[in-house]
Every structure is written in structure tokens, then in C-alpha cells.
Amino acid sequence: MKDIKECDIVKLKDGRVGTILGIWSDGKAYEVEIDSPKLETIEREDIYEVIQKD
Asked: pTM to 2 decimals?
């Protein structure tokens, strides 16, 4: 998978779409805004694809 950066928009394996707001554990987990203002910590393997790079 491409390098994921803050503000990228990603699609998760469960079909939800969110914006990367933070990167944890050297890219092993991400703070993702799914439904504003709801945030979730998502592991890299739960990200299906990067939809839009910022």
C-alpha cells in the first residue's frame, strides 16, 4: 500500500471512508475521522485503499 500521510482520505475494509488525522506507532495505526467529530484508531491492515492523497 502507498505511504499514508495525515489528511489523506482512506477507505476501510468495512466500507467506511475517513480522513487520517494522526499517525501512531510508526505507521502501524492511524487516528481516523470517520463521522465528524467521531475518531477511531485504525490499524494499517484495516485500511483497504487510499482514495485521495493530500
From this structure: 0.90
CA distance 9 to 18: 6
Q: How far is CA 47 from CA 3, 4, 5, 13, in A?
A: 12, 10, 13, 6
Query: What are 7-47's pLDDT values in tens digits?
Result: 999 999 999 999 999 999 889 999 999 988 999 999 999 99
DSSP code of residue 34: S
Locus of grid cell 494499517 = 44
CA separation, residue 37 to residues 1, 19, 25, 33, 52 (Å):
27, 11, 23, 7, 20
| Cell numbers that stand for 37 in this block | 467529530
